[in-house]
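Hi V.,

Quick status before I head out on leave. The structure for the redesign project is tokenized and pasted below; the design run finished overnight.
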């Protein structure tokens, strides 16, 4: 994630010089040129940890080679528009390397029971399926944050299933890809300042296809063979439906058109962000069902997938034929007017903001004071963060200083939540009531500020809805297992503190503020405690 967030701003500056710019045209929804360099950040960000930590085995070597091949072809295509057939060559090289050199292929096929596909059928099918997934993800990259968000949702579900098996190499692949997506999406949520381009979308499709094959064929073959349908979700049925329409209307199979799900939602009058959120919600439902139905029959899983996707396409078809429009009038109803009048009261945003400005520094300092067994590595990290804070104070370029400051705040928040969850509850007489009340109050204040702060306040994006939904579902799933309960609580607390911190940073650009002072105090305490342990 860190690598991706460093690489993308550099590539944005280079984009005009090397021609990696997406020019608006009739089929596209953006109206001004946008750099399409995000894929470089995603791939390089994901590849470095993969190269460092994956075992030196054929399947992982083949995966890395495939990713780098796709990046090379994708970058060239983003610069020169190589055309579909040249793009297919790169996809074919990546897929055939993974299947034939890495010996990764589908042999456990739906509806076949204990029977297995022969190698002569399984390997060509896997090459075809991998290329299909690359193109499906590439075609889903039509709205800001869409392809990244869909991939993120699938990766989170797959990460959970792989984590349960204890397969460390596969876990590394998924987490590295997740880091790349997280780093990218903050630049890509509407209105996007960067696109991922073919280099990014093909990498995500290739990695999704590869990791699902690993999961179902080698990591945990006991899973239902049909479960990839739910885990991969909407991009699969979307590209199948698009090809079916092109064949039916006798169109060129590979010529881009505006008949994808997201295009059809826009045509029905849904706004850009509404369309993205609708697709996110359907994808989240599918992959969540995938997590809970991993050992169910292939018929049940396939039937559910067909039912959900069929209902979506039936809605689109009926709405299009009847001329239904999502926003027929711009006039506000009575309820909307009442809400508008109430929301104009400044107290609804100023009071919650002031509470956040007190609560977050309070949590930071109190958690560091309650921390025990602070290891020297944490103290060293605190020293580095304070040095980085000093650098930010001396930098004259405010955007760069603010970017560094944000990193410091988020890393501090992660430290603080770890110590708060581990030690502070014990100080509070081993009861979670006060702890829940504190974070409940912070969450309420976050919600009020987001809702009522107006145009100058915190702006929510589809990425925010996706993050809340993904972490909420993840917390529920983790909470179902007693041993995972503390991870569920940790995730929710981390989400609350991250958003509260972002609101504070968004409203106050000063580095020396309440939260800035609390960071200095917090890391000073951690340094003292860590050094005390080190020197005994």
């Amino acid at each position: 994630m860190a690598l991706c967030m460093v690489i993308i701003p550099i590539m944005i500056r280079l984009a005009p010089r090397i021609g990696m710019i997406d020019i608006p045209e009739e089929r596209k929804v953006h109206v001004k040129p946008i750099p399409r360099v995000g894929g470089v950040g995603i791939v390089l960000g994901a590849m470095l940890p993969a190269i460092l930590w994956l075992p030196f085995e054929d399947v992982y070597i083949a995966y890395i080679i495939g990713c780098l091949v796709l990046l090379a072809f994708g970058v060239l295509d983003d610069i020169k528009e190589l055309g579909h057939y040249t793009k297919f060559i790169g996809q074919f090289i990546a897929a055939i390397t993974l299947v034939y050199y890495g010996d990764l292929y589908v042999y456990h096929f739906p509806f076949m029971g204990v029977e297995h596909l022969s190698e002569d059928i399984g390997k060509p099918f896997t090459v075809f399926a991998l290329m299909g997934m690359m193109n499906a993800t590439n075609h889903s990259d039509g709205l800001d944050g869409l392809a990244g968000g869909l991939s993120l949702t699938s990766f989170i579900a797959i990460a959970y299933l792989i984590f349960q098996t204890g397969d460390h190499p596969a876990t590394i692949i998924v987490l590295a890809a997740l880091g790349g997506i997280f780093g990218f999406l903050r630049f890509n949520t509407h209105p996007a300042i960067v696109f991922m381009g073919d280099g990014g979308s093909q990498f995500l499709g290739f990695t999704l296809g590869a990791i699902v094959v690993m999961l179902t064929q080698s990591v945990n073959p006991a899973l239902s063979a049909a479960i990839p349908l739910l885990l991969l979700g909407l991009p699969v049925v979307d590209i199948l439906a698009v090809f079916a329409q092109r064949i039916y209307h006798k169109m060129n199979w590979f010529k881009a058109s505006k008949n994808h799900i997201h295009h059809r939602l826009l045509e029905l009058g849904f706004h850009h962000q509404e369309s993205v959120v609708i697709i996110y919600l359907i994808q989240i439902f599918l992959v969540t069902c995938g997590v809970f139905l991993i050992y169910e029959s292939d018929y049940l899983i396939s039937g559910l997938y067909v039912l959900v996707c069929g209902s979506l396409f039936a809605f689109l078809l009926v709405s299009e034929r009847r001329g239904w429009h999502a926003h027929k009038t711009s006039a506000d109803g009575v309820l909307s007017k009442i809400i508008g009048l109430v929301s104009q009261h400044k107290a609804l945003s100023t009071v919650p903001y002031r509470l956040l400005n007190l609560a977050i520094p309070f949590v930071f300092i109190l958690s560091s004071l309650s921390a025990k067994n602070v290891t020297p590595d944490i103290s060293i990290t605190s020293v580095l963060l304070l040095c980085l804070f000093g650098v930010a104070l001396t930098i004259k370029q405010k955007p760069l200083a603010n970017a560094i400051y944000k990193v410091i705040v988020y890393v501090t928040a992660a430290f603080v939540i770890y110590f708060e969850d581990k030690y502070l509850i014990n100080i509070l007489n081993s009861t979670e009531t006060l702890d829940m009340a504190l974070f409940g109050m912070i969450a309420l204040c976050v919600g009020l500020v987001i809702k009522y702060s107006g145009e100058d306040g915190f702006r929510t994006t589809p990425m925010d809805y996706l993050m809340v939904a993904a972490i909420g579902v993840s917390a529920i799933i983790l909470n179902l297992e007693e041993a995972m309960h503390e991870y569920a609580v940790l995730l929710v607390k981390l989400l609350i503190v991250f958003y509260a911190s972002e609101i504070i940073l968004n409203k106050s650009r000063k580095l020396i503020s309440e939260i800035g002072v609390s960071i200095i105090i917090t890391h000073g305490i951690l340094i003292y405690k860590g050094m005390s342990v080190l020197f005994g």
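Above is the designed sequence. The longest strand covers residues 21-22.

G. will cover questions while I'm gone.

Best,
W.
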